[in-house]
Amino acid sequence: MIQIKDGPAGRRYDGAMSRPSIFSIPAGAAPAARMARRHAVARLSLAWLAMMQVMMLAWPGYVRAGASEQSLPTLDWAIVLMNHASLALAMPVVAYSAWPVWRGAWADLRRGHVGMDLPVALSIAAAFLPSLYATVAGKGPVYFDSVTMFVAFLLTARYLELCARLSSGARRWPAPLEAERQRLERDARRTASLFVAAQLALAAGAAIAWTWQAGPAQAMPVVVAMLVLSCPCALSLSVPTVMLSLHAAMGRHPGMGPDQVEALRADARRVARTSLYGSLAWHLLMVPPAFLGWVAPSLAAASMLVSSLAVAGNAWLLWRRRVEPRPVCAPALR
Question: How far apart are CA 272 and CA 260, in angstroms?
Fold first, then answer.
């Protein structure tokens, strides 16, 4: 806990704190928060396990284009069998692992608000339902690999966000840092809301254009990729990861004066905004090739994970600079 002491020499910030980790549960965490962490780990583990199996089962479909005519009947029979197995693996991922997404999307609809969960739910439904129909009908492409990959990557980013928020939100912050944290979170929410609304409009435009030009079958992967790119996971990670890095710095270097706290506040603003607008730029750069059909849904999911990990890495670099400053080399003796 950070204690603020006033003395003749001015206000100082003393931090008798253990070194925080993004994966450590604060001692004062509520039972509901601990239970949320357990459920998040269970959902994340199931999604990753199913994703690895589904990717393996999708292999016959990947190699069909280069197969000989003699092997096509056997390969098609294997694809049908593997599609049913992939459906069995993807259903618990969609129903259980993605349950917080469905709950959040329903809450957004009831409020008449476009939140972060609505485009995610639309992308999962847009990929899973046609795949379910194609599997039952025995014809058509399936996207179970993209569905499980997207859910696994999405839950990975959200688990990092949950851990960072639990670790940083349980701390008491000096007034300048607390005010900066609230300001940055408002900016992140506003930016994410505008991005999601614009991305949904572009996804609708892509659906209309591709359906008119090439038909629904060709439009489906384009729309799914556009919806996957609308997930603002990296944007929502920008603030909590930075605040956790600052807390680690205050814990390692107690007794900070007002000037040092002001320097931390400036660092928080700079790094959080760099992560926020950098991840936004990354998503916007992916939009034109996705609109043109050059980005597969699985690649869109991977790019979402890359941007989230880049945000976490940017906060880690701040931690390295503040907690472990680079040593100054002494001049060589002659």
Answer: 18
Average pLDDT of span 183-188:
91
- Strand ranges in 8-145 using DSSP code E only, listed in sequence order: 10-15
**Residues sharing a CB contact under 8 Å with residue 328, sequence separation 6 or more, in sequence order:** none
Q: Are 50 and 93 in contact (CB under 8 A)?
A: yes
pLDDT band at 125 (very low <50, low <70, confident <90, very high): very high
Residue 140, SS3 per DSSP: coil
Closest CA to 230 of 252, 202, 207, 263: 202
8 Å CB contact between 247 and 170: no
- What's the confidence (pLDDT) of residue 92? 97
Q: Residue 19 in contact with residue 252, Cβ under 8 Å?
A: yes
Between residues 114 and 214, which one has the greater pLDDT? 214
Count of CB atoms situated within 10 Å of the CB of 323: 16
Tokens found for residue 115: 């939140």
Segment (H or E) for 7: strand 2-7
Which one-letter amino acid corresponds to residue 212? W
| Among the listed residues 167, 188, 177, the one whose alpha carbon sits nearest the alpha carbon of residue 232 | 188
Show the tokens assigned to 145.
């690999």
3-state secondary structure of 332: coil
Quote the DSSP letter at residue 95: I
Q: What digits encode the pLDDT tens for the residues 210-238?
A: 999 999 889 989 998 998 888 888 888 88
Cα–Cα distance between 223 and 209 in angstroms, integer? 10
For residues 154, 290, 271, 44, the Cα torsion angle rounded to the nearest 10 degrees is 10
Domain ranges of the chain: 31-323
Buried b (16+ CB within 10 A) or exposed e, 86-104: bbebbeebbeebbebbbeb
Bridge partner residues of 3 (DSSP): 14
